[in-house]
Request: fold
Amino acid sequence: MRAEILPDAEGAARRGAEVIAAAATESIDARGGFSLAVSGGHGPWRMFELLDAHDLDWERIEIFQVDERVAPDGDDDRNLTHLLASLPGPARERVRAMPVTDADLDVAATRYGESLPERIDLVHLGLGPDGHTASLVPGDPVLDVGDRPVALTGVYQARRRMTLTYPALAAAREIFWLVTGADKPDALAKLRAGDPSIPAGRVREENAVLVCDRAATGD
Reply:
């Protein structure tokens, strides 16, 4: 994968916004629209804010969730809560939220999978210190799901999750990793080596770009 190392998290967030904006412009010019799937966690919040500096045609953009915690609407644990707080105003209406408050979560996951484009144009991923990405977490049966694009996990950090699966990630036109923080060097080294011992290492590396800060590399 192509790697860009920025001096700090602010620089990585700014570069990440540029990557998303460039992919959106290229996709809209080539195909008339742009599909973006975004991950949760604290890391991307500033990047989403910085998208406001780019003149994007939000009416032609759809934003999907890579993963979401099973929690009530508005809960601080929900990725959606922070996504909506971070995105520019016009972008918020373009978010297609994972239906994690439905009574039947298996049916909800199937329905969300059916709503996805056949190939998402750009999937943004983060990286946990334990090597997880999306909600593909170590030891969870979801790692072996190969017959559907969206599935449910077991309990991880006190919550079940809904997540894109490896097949959905493999179908994406491009993968964009944003990795920041001093707790990431071990996991990041394994990701860059394509080490399948961590969930993130099993994501395909072709057509992938990594933007990270220097702290994440351990330098």
